[in-house]
Amino acid sequence: MVAEGVETEAQRAFLEGEACEEMQGYLIGRPEPIEHYSSLIGINVERRRYA
Fold it and tell me: Tell me, what's the pLDDT at 19?
């Protein structure tokens, strides 16, 4: 199970207490442009535009 929308430490603590190990949301990481992600993983991602 993945808990979505985790925004506060209180929410995180509650979910950990309920044995939820997978979380996502602003507390964990904010959205970033794909260019930032590609530099984290060490590859160059070509950005394509589709009509």
Answer: 96
- At residue 18's C-alpha, the angle toward residues 13 and 10, to 5°, is 20
Question: Could you report the per-residue pLDDT of 22-44, keeping only the tens digit for each?
Answer: 999 999 988 888 778 777 787 76
**49 strand-pairing partners:** none
pTM of the full structure? 0.63
The residue type at 7: E
Query: Going by DSSP bridges, is the β-strand pair 22-23/2-3 parallel, antiparallel, or unpaired?
Result: parallel
Q: Residue 6 in contact with residue 27, Cβ under 8 Å?
A: yes
- How many angstroms separate the CA atoms of 51 and 40, rounded? 29
Are 23 and 15 a contacting pair, CB within 8 Å?
Answer: yes
